[in-house]
Design goal:
Two copies of one chain form a homodimer. Chain A is an alpha/beta fold. Chain A folds into two domains: 3-119 and 276-347, FAD/NAD(P)-binding domain (3-Layer(bba) Sandwich); 125-274, FAD/NAD(P)-binding domain. Chain A has 13 helices and 24 strands. Chain A has helices at 3-6, 20-29, 51-55, 61-64, 68-71, 137-156, 160-166, 176-192, 222-235, 280-289, 329-347, 382-396, 400-414; strands at 11-16, 34-40, 78-82, 84-89, 94-98, 103-107, 110-113, 117-119, 168-172, 206-210, 237-240, 244-249, 252-256, 262-266, 269-272, 276-278, 299-300, 306-307, 310-315, 320-321, 361-367, 370-375, 378-380, 440-441. In chain A, strands 3-2-1-7-19-18 form a six-stranded mixed beta sheet, sandwiched between helices. Chain A has a four-stranded parallel beta sheet with strand order 11-10-9-15. In chain A, α2 runs parallel beside α11 and α6 packs antiparallel against α7. The N and C termini of chain A lie far apart (72 Å). At the A-B interface, α1, α4, β3, β5 and β6 of A face α1, α4, β3, β5 and β6 of B.
């Protein structure tokens, strides 16, 4: 019936998750004599590091989210399933999943769990309504509608306080996503939207960037952090370091700074890029194997990315806890390739090795044709940085047409144009009972 | 405060709705010495005749939905407002609207109401859940997720009946939208998805097209209707003419054919393109003016598109009822230009004329590089038709980059590729309690 059935004698690998880790594992495995089933509840591989570009109108979501099924069209030994994994039976070697069509039990000989992380509000899930994260396609669309919708609300408002609040954007978390998003909001405000409004001056929009640490892009090292600080200041992002959000509501947030003082900021648009927590599948597979998880729910793995006593079960990417490796795309890709290699070597009877991560560096796009790059120790910024940034992003973007489309969109964005803004009045959340000076006659 | 206030001495025109009618009126008026306020609850001008292309993965929504604000960036006398119109006071010459930022009362000297139509289920609004229409951006995204999600559900299902139902697509209404959508679903099934699945053969997908009339594209005339019938049959669309849907649920629909027989079709994906009803704003403005509405709620206007006793109030496009003119983009555009012309002529003290519609013909895209076109009496089909179709659609698509992107996407689609498919498991509606043979172990 299914292709599994016809070839059940081959070694079966189930890969859970189609992010960077799962994608790279499945791609590498597709060249070995194994049967791969790739399960994801999303039909698409999402290039997460570019989600902020969708949220700020530079590229359409489809460009950074090719269908997994299309990626593996020609790899006949890879079967893609759209389904939500609901549990594991490690003794019977089964993965349980619910698809829109059926409940499934997927047998495996090797299992790779690459379910990734989601936004964490550190125990304050009630913030989510007011301050969406930026980890999924839906997040990006929500954030985009809110950002561009806020300018619309400001244009329509006659109340100076409300208008100021609509034109204030707070980004919590100054890692790459927070930095890139802040920079792009300022860029949209000062260039894209500059001539589009009649009542407001979009360039007066404030962008506040909060982080508990002492500098933005802390993981990039002092040199590049300083560069980022300077660039962000130049384009008008207001940096608030050593600052922790202590409360978030529908009109703004409260922040405690290093000296213990608490300040309230009226900001109608808040984006949360401050923390991540492991997918619940992490805890699920850890419990089934008797493995430990760290505070963020990541699964503690052996040096070869497998679980103790379960050499056939790999946990990779953001979901694994190993040697304090950072939760970046590069770790996910390399651990995916590693898991695929171990499986192949075992089938060939060869010796396997522990996972060895090669740090390729980090990069962030902080403004018009300006990026900050640390590539294997080579530190670049400005336009040279941008060229490197563009080259690396095009390399890892999947699909020729998507690369072409992204490049075209980046070129267009350099001129200030962003046309990827589709939303309606109902997409803009109004604070309860706000601003409604009934029948304020405009223009009289 | 607002730009209205600064220039209130100029003649003020409020345009309600940014579809073809409102867009063409506002564009033409922007060249006159008037103040234009364009109000729409959507931030975008939506090229409705291409929505089926978004639903079938050919072009991203942003390509056919440029922001109204961006379109009018350089027209300084046009102010765009994102707001939902809530009422009219024709005596005080005010339009009431609710924006996310404020409640507004917009004063006008001339008013153009171009709020268009929505999907009508002829009194059966309960069908909407199971059979979305294809009139808005949200519709297109919903329909797209359901179409591509249905193939996913079929792939995951082991139950042959359920699989067949997931692979059956019913389109109700054989006007241009229904015909184009049916053709594109077949095209996706037989080309795009052909090699992507492992358990199902996507080409076995059935597409059923139902219509109460005797032939598809009835308004195109017998010659082109016959052409369309032949083409649809050739690509495998099953035509059911003289057939009325008598009930719709989460698993399919019942249809009564010309001989009175009622047949049930199990189809998990149903799209409703059969009927339209006027926006409620039509009835609202008609009541305020004491004008009549027709059965579909369209406003009966005088020959110059104004309301009786209210020469300063125009109702245009799909929302107007005049001389049995069809609800097509061309009527909307021409009536928009007409209203703008009348307003200008009045300001110049010139005589005004009744609206005179010039029929430019009709066209529909029915398959790979194959369109059916009646352009001012010139009847074309096949590839010549496609060229004409492409030229006309590019002409009316707004924005250079959008034209470029559309052309590129069409070229890509000719090869069978469609990458604009972003969805997840939760986007696929499962019928209550269906198909869930618990723990059916796959591939054993």
């Amino acid at each position: 019936m299914s292709s599994h059935a016809r070839t059940a004698s081959r070694h079966r690998v189930v890969v859970v998750g189609g992010g960077f880790g799962g994608l790279f594992a499945a791609r590498r495995l597709s060249r070995s004599n194994v049967e791969v089933t790739l399960v994801d509840r999303s039909a698409n591989h999402v290039f997460q590091p570019m989600l902020y570009q969708c949220a700020t109108g530079i590229v359409p979501v489809a460009t950074i989210a090719p269908p997994l099924r299309a990626i593996f069209r020609r790899r006949r030994n890879v079967c893609v399933l759209l389904a939500e994994v609901t549990g594991f039976d490690l003794d019977r070697r089964l993965v349980y999943a619910r698809s829109p069509g059926a409940e499934l039990a997927l047998p495996y000989d090797s299992l790779i769990v690459a379910a990734g992380v989601r936004t964490s509000y550190f125990g304050h899930d009630e913030y989510a309504r007011h301050a969406p994260g930026l980890k999924t396609v839906d997040d990006a669309m929500t954030v985009g509608r809110r950002i561009f919708g806020a300018f619309e609300a400001a244009e329509a408002s006659d109340d100076p306080d409300a208008r100021r609040a609509w034109l204030t954007f707070a980004v919590v978390g100054a890692g790459p996503t927070g930095v890139e998003l802040s920079a792009q909001i300022r860029r949209a405000a000062t260039h894209t939207l500059k001539r589009e409004y009649r009542s407001i001056d979009s360039a007066t929009a404030r962008v506040l960037l909060f982080d508990g640490g002492t500098e933005p892009l802390a993981t990039f090292g002092d040199h590049l952090s300083e560069r980022a600080t300077r660039t962000l200041r130049r384009i008008g992002v207001e940096l608030h370091m050593s600052s922790l959000a202590t409360s978030v509501d529908d009109r703004g947030l409260e922040v405690r700074s290093g000296d213990g003082q608490v300040t309230r900021y009226d900001a109608r648009t808040i984006v949360w890029t401050a923390g991540v927590a492991a997918s619940p599948l992490g805890r699920m597979v850890a419990e089934a194997a008797g493995a430990s998880t760290d505070r963020a729910g990541r699964v503690e793995v052996l040096p070869d990315c497998t679980l103790p006593g379960r050499p056939e079960v790999f946990v990779i990417g953001d979901l694994m806890s190993l040697d304090h490796l950072p939760g970046v795309a590069e770790v996910a890709m390399q651990s995916g390739l590693h898991a695929a290699r171990v499986i192949r070597h075992r089938l060939e009877g060869r010796e396997t090795r522990p996972f060895h991560y090669v740090d390729m560096g980090s990069m962030a796009y902080v403004g018009r044709g300006h990026a900050i790059v640390d590539f294997r120790g080579l530190k670049l910024s400005g336009f040279l940085g941008w060229l490197m940034w563009a080259a690396v992003h095009l390399t890892f973007l999947t699909g020729f047409m998507n690369r072409f489309a992204a490049l075209l969109n980046w070129m267009t964005a350099l001129t200030g144009t962003r046309r990827v803004r589709v939303f309606s009045a109902s997409d803009v959340p109004s604070p309860a009972g706000a601003d409604r000076a009934a029948e304020a006659v405009r223009g009289r």
